[in-house]
Amino acid sequence: MPDQGLIDDANLGRLREAGRLRAHVDRMLADRRSDEFVQSFVWAWLKLQNTVDMAPDPTKFYEFHRNRLNEAMIAETNTFFRVMLTENLPLSTFVDSDFAVINADLARHYGLAGKVNTTAAFQRVTLPKQSQRGGLLGQTAVLTASANGVDTSPVVRGIWILDNLLGAPPAPPPADVEIPEPDARGDLTIRELYAKHRTVDSCNDCHQKIDPLGFALETYDAIGAWRTQYASGHVVDASGMLPNGKRFEDVAGLKRLMQEELDPFSRNLTRKLMTYATGRRMSIADRAEIDAIMQRMKSERGGLRDLVKHVVTSEVFLTK
């Protein structure tokens, strides 16, 4: 329910004043009750329900359950979002960062044992230069949510990135198309399996967008552990080429390209926040307001807290 500060300003007819609204945003985000916003928005935005619906197989990923990663990974992503809000960090930090916010269990999982000495509390840790854990794409919650609990699929993860981070979900596949299954004998690499699949003309256009993104994450297994080869012995090849012709060698290269072309990510996050704030999907009629927010964010070089304030002071929100 609205607190006394909001009620007082509403009674005085001052809630539409942009400056006063921004002050309320700062005041309310400093209140621990805003954790509900952080947790519910992050859960919906990143489809973290998948970590429950497609939880890692306990017989294959015993360490996931033994090391309590199922609780720690959600807390990591929520805490990372909270740091972004508190420090008003640039939106590009979601794509890649030089820090992680982890506990001891996650530190071991990430090959950073000794960096954190507490399991209960989460600490901000500066990542080594060559670490692949920066940003959302290095977090176990995201990597588990974009897998299927048993194995990884470049198609599943590629679609996850397009849908949840870039706001460009591909069209559903034709009903008669078969998704390649892992080669149990290990005779074919994952790329050879998908190369056969892409010979189907009706599939190729979409897979040019999907597959490179998914292959970039193949250096992480279904619970986000780093790997350089598959159980079959084949070496992981995380390189790819985007539809615009730009190439990358690994996930770090993909992150750099995403930061260079940040507009799709920023627009998608803006749309997701406005959807959450208004309780309805954005339509073509809302495009001008989203464009205006994007422009203000660019000119101000704004961060996540600035974006939340722009959403709260937008006409779309005020007239919802």
Strand segment tally: 4
Class from helix and strand fractions? mainly alpha
Please state how the strands of the largest beta sheet are arranged side by side: 1-2
How many helices in DSSP terms?
17
What letter string, H or E per element, gives the SSE order?
Answer: HHHHHHHEHEHHHHEEHHHHH
Mean pLDDT score: 91
Q: Whole-number radius of gyration? A: 21 Å
User: Biggest sheet, in brief?
Assistant: 2 strands, antiparallel
* DSSP strand content: under 5%
Count of discrete structural domains: 3
Low-confidence stretches: none
Shape: globular
First-residue to last-residue Cα separation? 17 Å
**How helical, in percent, are the residues?**
40-55%
Summarize this entry quickly.
The protein is mainly α.
Model description:
The structure is a single chain. The protein has 320 residues and is mainly alpha-helical. Helix content is 51%, strand content 4%. A two-stranded antiparallel sheet has the order 1-2. Strands 3-4 form a two-stranded antiparallel ribbon. A hairpin with a 5-residue loop joins strand 3 and strand 4. The longest helix has 19 residues. The two termini are 17 Å apart.
